[in-house]
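$ ./design --mode recover --in tokens.txt
reading tokens...
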């Protein structure tokens, strides 16, 4: 009987020594505040943007603060989870629109920016404007978002999920 009681005491002691599991964070759903770390790459694997080593990207799920394809792919994830996500142009910045180019006089562009590929800041919700071609008297500007028409590849880690304030 003494042996049996000692064994029960040992088992009870072991049960008490077990660490308690951390509760699972809430799943990402509409209305939740989310914080992520991400690295964005193009089809060739070139890094286009990253916040690694910097402040997390914070947004409210379901409020269209990030591209739709990324928002959809994050739904249901929890803090601590990592995922590789591919977003097609239709779920990102859309297809590149060839009609979204305009020709302006060279005099409308700062002289130090008159080279092909230069990005100019423009007052547009679609992003910056890029110089596509410099002609003799005019410049052709591409008004598409710089990532329009591109498939985007994200390496994402969810850092936090919680109710919106």
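writing sequence...
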């Amino acid at each position: 009987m003494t042996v049996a009681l000692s064994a029960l005491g040992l088992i009870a002691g072991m049960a008490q020594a077990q660490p308690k599991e951390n509760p699972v964070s809430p799943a990402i759903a509409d209305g939740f505040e989310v914080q992520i770390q991400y690295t964005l790459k193009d089809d060739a694997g070139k890094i286009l943007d990253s916040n690694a080593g910097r402040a997390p990207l914070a947004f409210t799920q379901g409020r269209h603060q990030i591209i739709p394809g990324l928002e959809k792919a994050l739904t249901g994830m929890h803090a601590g989870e990592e995922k590789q996500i591919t977003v097609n142009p239709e779920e990102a910045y859309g297809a590149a629109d060839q009609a979204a180019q305009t020709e302006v006089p060279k005099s409308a562009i700062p002289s130090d920016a008159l080279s092909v590929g230069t990005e100019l800041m423009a007052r547009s919700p679609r992003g910056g404007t890029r110089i596509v071609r410099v002609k003799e008297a005019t410049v052709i500007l591409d008004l598409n978002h710089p990532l329009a028409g591109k498939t985007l590849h994200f390496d994402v880690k969810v850092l936090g999920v919680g109710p919106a304030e």
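exit 0
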